[in-house]
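Notes from the 1:1 (GR / supervisor)

We went over the backlog. Supervisor wanted to see one worked example end to end before approving the batch request, so GR pasted a single chain during the call. The sequence is below; no edits were made to it. Supervisor asked that the structure be written out right there so they could see what the output format looks like.
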Amino acid sequence: MVANVPAPRTCATADPPPAADKIARDAARNAALLSASFALPPGPLGMLTVLPDLYLIWKIQRQMVADIFALYGRAAELTRTHMLYCLFRHMASHVLRDVVVRAGERAVVRQMSSAALKSALGSLGVTVARRVAGTSASRWVPLAGAAAVGAYAYWDTLQVAKTARRLLDATPRGTATFAASKNASPRGE
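Structure output shown during the call:
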């Protein structure tokens, strides 16, 4: 579900960076408001909002990535693999980096098979579990938790946008693969 590629709501533009910045800021604001709202219910009721919160944030982020690719005129090149890379690179860059390192320093990550995709998602489970635990803990302190969760959702969404734009910059136009960037930050920034 998380890797599905939605239809873009934007079209190619002559100057995509400013438009991509606006889309990223709008998506980050929406994600922050949504996540902060979901974090308001205290205690056990708040615990019930964790998974819907994550799903809806990822839905906003998926749409943002699709829209950014469309702004650059490259919507047709966006694959499930690209989507996963953009959504989770900053959270679990070590998993994807391990795949790239095994294939060589200048490796090209091609469309993953279903089994490889499931394996990569399984490896991301630990990172997602940590995020769920952090989000869950904040449900016990409603106002402070809501502010923190909203701020994290804002930052997280901007990181997804940054990854999508770096991917577009590092990938030659018209290819369905993406190259491992030699200058990618080791901290996932």
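Supervisor's comment: Residues 93-112, 176-189 have pLDDT under 50 and may be disordered.
Batch request approved.
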